[in-house]
Amino acid sequence: MANIKHTLLELKAKLDAGDLTSEGLVREYLDQIDRLNPTIHAFLYVAREEALAQARILDQERAAGTLRGPLHGLPIALKDNMSVEGMQNTCASKFLEGYVAPYDATIVKKLKEAGAVILGKLNMDEFAMGSSTEYSAYGDTKNPWSLDRIPGGSSGGSAAALSAMMAPITLGTDTGGSVRQPAAFNNLVGLKPTYGRISRYGITAFGSTLDQVGVFARDVRDCALMAGVLSGVDPMDSTTADEPVPDYLAGLTADLSGIRLALPKSFLDGLKEPMKGLLLHTVEEYRALGATVDEIDLTFAHNALAVYYIVASAEASSNLARFDGIRYGRRAENPVSARDLYTRSRSEGFGEEVKRRIMLGTYVLSAGFYDAYYNTALKVRTLIKEELRRVFTQYDAIIGPTTPTGPRRLGERSDNIIDEYLNDLYTVPANIAGVPAIAFPMGFAEGIPMSCQLIGDYFSEPKLFQIAYAYEKAHDHITRYPEVATL
Ligand code: GLN
């Protein structure tokens, strides 16, 4: 218990001062995982022996005076759709049960080069489709703040592991909000960087024009450090941007003078209490801290949700075609023909939500419907991008809620799938436009965390960190921990 409640940067200082060894720290996290994972079920795979062996090597290197990089000896846990050589990569699907990644994703390579220790792989909605982690083929993850509630999704394991102190930092992927929404439900900072900022090589694709790797952190400074380690152009992912990576952490200030925020009126329409009151309170606090906040009208951004479910499903149907029973993972027994092999492998291997997305995506791409749905969605996507660009010529960021409500109870999924999709109302615009967004804690309602979101212009991560940090410094929300984790 002594160390696991610290932030990553606090742990780094302790390692640097010689007050702590990497092995000792890894053991503390493994103990916490042993104690809490049976209840919370955030980890699908605990890399116990690998992590201890790696920590020992890193301790020896440190004793000999060599540091690999800024994360030397620090543990991290990863969503189970990120390839780590020699570890499972199931995407929480039966299809990939037993599949072991034969290579490291670029981000994993970068983490290893920076000296990180990988603690294991985290639960998620199957193939990252969902907002609750209830679509995992390996069982639900519970929200450490309230064990009968969802942790959010699709990166629910990443959020629950961090908030329950089973890791000091975690990674997820965000196609439509899968980092920011679970961060919101767990009192964490969650960053979805600019499209192209971080390589996706080695990460199982869902919606290729939307997917980004994102960071879950206890605070903004940890998030800035980790984003810096992961960012940068990668020859293995041609969608990465050849833009310089600033030192996010060194450049971080909490100065709000001259900062202009835009609050879209449509974000307030229909927003219920207690979220609405907390958001308006946060806006007032931003004003008190020196920022200007104006209400603005947006015409197209509220269509982002419809655009998202067309585009993401279309891309998913194409990306998931590779799961054919031949190349990876599951293969149906005794097929009588190639068609039978495909059909049975896919019917048996995929869960209900993944099948729904594949069918929806195939439908919107099919001859006769392509223009009505997919092409129209692309046109609206352009309008949304242009609209946000116009906003960012006058404002530093858009402020709003991360989610319409707090986390619902486990198992209380509505029969109407649209209700589930409406969760993503405020998070999808950033993915549709490809711009960065950050979620951060703005307080609690009856013990349940509530979250504020900032959306910025392309590559404006430094500004988003700065604006979020100014609020964070003025509050103590991040110093609260779920009771279950501190027993
Ligand atoms: N909840 C959204 C969906 O189900 C977002 C998922 C994600 O970002 N991976 O598609």
Which secondary structure elements does this structure contain, and how are they paired or packed?
Layout: H1 8-17, H2 22-40, E1 43-46, H3 48-63, E2 75-79, H4 106-113, E3 117-122, H5 156-163, E4 170-174, H6 180-185, E5 189-192, E6 212-217, H7 220-230, E7 260-264, H8 265-268, H9 275-288, E8 292-296, H10 304-319, H11 338-349, H12 352-365, H13 371-394, E9 397-401, H14 417-421, H15 428-433, E10 437-445, E11 448-456, H16 461-473, H17 483-486
Helix pairs in contact: 2-3, 7-16, 10-12, 10-13
This protein binds glutamine.
Average pLDDT score:
97
- Give me the Rg, rounded: 21 Å
| Distance between the first and last residues' Cα | 9 Å
Structural class: alpha/beta
Beta strand count: 11
Shape: globular
Can you describe this structure?
Strand 2, helix 4 and strand 3 (117-122) form a beta-alpha-beta unit. This protein has a single domain (3-259, 395-486), classed as Amidase signature (AS) domain (Amidase signature (AS) enzymes). It has 17 helices and eleven strands. The chain has helices spanning 8-17, 22-40, 48-63, 106-113, 156-163, 180-185, 220-230, 265-268, 275-288, 304-319, 338-349, 352-365, 371-394, 417-421, 428-433, 461-473, 483-486, and strands spanning 43-46, 75-79, 117-122, 170-174, 189-192, 212-217, 260-264, 292-296, 397-401, 437-445, 448-456. It has an eleven-stranded mixed sheet, with helices on both faces. By secondary structure, the protein is α/β, with parallel strands linked by helices. The chain binds glutamine. Glutamine binds next to strand 4.
